[in-house]
Amino acid sequence: MYAIKQLSVFIENKAGELSDFTHVLSKNDISIKSILLADSTDFGLVRTIVDNPDKAKAILEDAGFSVRFTDVFGVKIEDVIGSFDKVVTALSKSNINIQYTYSFYESDTGIFIFNVEKDKFSEAVKALVDSNLEIISASHFYR
Amino acid sequence: MTFSKNESFSKDELEAWQLNHLKETLIRVYHLVPFYKKKFEEIGIKPEDIKSLKDISKLPFTKKSDLRNNYPFGMFSVEMDQIVRIHSSSGTTGKPTVVGYTEHDMDIWAEVMGRVFTMGGLTCKDILHNATGYGLFTGGLGFHGAAERMKIAVIPSSTGFTSRQLLLLKDFGATAITGTPSFALHLAEKAKAEGYDIKKDFSLRVGFFGAEPSSDGLKDEIANIWGIDYHEVYGLSEIIGPGVASSCKHSHLLHLNEDHFYPEIIDPKTQEVLEDGQRGELVITTLTKQGLPIIRYRTGDITSITRVPCRCGRTLCRIESIVGRSDDMLVINGVNVFPSQIEHVLAKIDNITLNYQIIAKKKGHLDKLEIDVELSENCMSDDVGDLTRLQKHIQDELLNALYINVNVKIVAHKSIKRSEGKATRVIDKRV
Lengths: 143, 431
Hints:
- The complex is a heterodimer of chains A (143) and B (431).
- Chain A has 143 residues and is α+β, with helices and mostly antiparallel strands.
- Chain A contains 4 helices and 7 strands, in the order βαββαβαββαβ.
- Chain A folds into 2 domains: 4-70, VC0802-like (2-Layer Sandwich); 72-140, VC0802-like (2-Layer Sandwich), CATH 3.30.2130.10.
- In chain A, strands 1, 2, 3, 4, 5, 6 and 7 form a 7-stranded antiparallel β-sheet that branches.
- The model of chain A has no long low-confidence stretch (mean pLDDT 89).
- Chain B has 431 residues and is α/β, with parallel strands linked by helices.
- In chain B, 31% of the residues lie in helices and 26% in strands.
- In chain B, strands 4-3-5-6-7-8-9-14-13 form a 9-stranded mixed β-sheet, with helices on both faces. In chain B, strands 10-11-12-15 form a 4-stranded antiparallel β-sheet.
- The two termini of chain B are 37 Å apart.
- The model of chain B has no long low-confidence stretch (mean pLDDT 93).
- Chain A binds chain B through residues 6, 8-12, 17, 38-40, 42-45, 47, 61, 64-68, 70, 99, 115, and chain B through 375-384, 387-388, 391, 409-415.
């Protein structure tokens, strides 16, 4: 229930590539909940959480994008000093490497999205639950 | 001045010599190379059936793929105790093309290269800066061996390290240089950038260039920039290496050493032999080689033959500078590359499609090869590092297999245009 299907999409570093991507989503009525871009000189990876990942994957593939699902989870944070530290500490104590993280805010809460090493997903979730942190259910994002 | 008397053979002398050596070569390959025995038997021909030079058109062709299929030494007509040198170039599906030389072959090579150097007026007083690639390629060592035998001082500078080369060119006072035409231009550009005064700082008076196509305009440009006489040298490893043909100082046409390499021009489609003056594919039969004698080798190079007498007095026929290819071979900084070789390398790599595009362009005066490779439908990873490693991996594999530096670009799935029918795999922006 905690695994959010994040879309990882390959895009080339050239004018119009990102807008091609966002255009496909908006035309098909898909809402982007959060997005992170990682890039090298020649290409980039868009990591995004949308409200309908299965449909988004299908339409993106139809449009010629290389797409994969990556399991990530979201942790609820409050806007107080030390809240992010608490999450990261819980993971590091359990020896779990964070691959990347990004955040977004809803009206009253903030959510950090995490990608951890392969095979460490459940371990990471357990470590956070044990530390009394709130993990957002994947369905929170979906329509 | 010519290097040997054969260069001014009369028509009768030449044809008698050619027929005599052709007959010897046919007996040699028929009895010593099973590949040829089988080929001759298939079409029911025996060496003694070839009674005139015209009869050569009855003989079967040899292709690059025949060398590959008989890898490594299957086409040699001597045992290894007779072989003194082996060279090789990258093959079309992973296996290299291998050529071997006996001591006699090395003499022939030195002989034809001696003719080349003599066309440029070189003597034992000269210093030759040999900026042609050394190693498995025939280029560097082909120039080197003959120059050494003529007691020319050879500097084996090979390719690359442009700044160092300029320093040596100036300080050693080389009078002659070899290399690809694009490297000659690259050197000149670098020399200007580093503040050299090309005509004052260097002592060059003659250059021998080859291994890639060059227009007359390009030749004149190089001759002017460096203040040298430009001589083009043509050759291919399957025949001997550099020294098959070269231009004297009177024109851009190349005298072909037809006393050792019998030339024909054919229509690459119908395989019909064409008349002098007509353009077609150059086919060569070696007349004097022992290690790897070769019958009617399809060079893939498009040119024409002329027998108009040359003012230099040499009577050997002349060919035009190569005007194109009958296949899709690319020449990248003097290295020959077939798209099929690239495809063969890509086919062994995971996470990409075989929908790729090869783009050849010029960066300054040097060739640059870029290959756009499509990522497969399932994006292989969520990690930019993995994709960068994939890119590097493809580049390394291409360098290993083909000896060329390629700039690989990973592009999005389905981003390379699919065409109806035959795909456009190669975009050559140099022409």
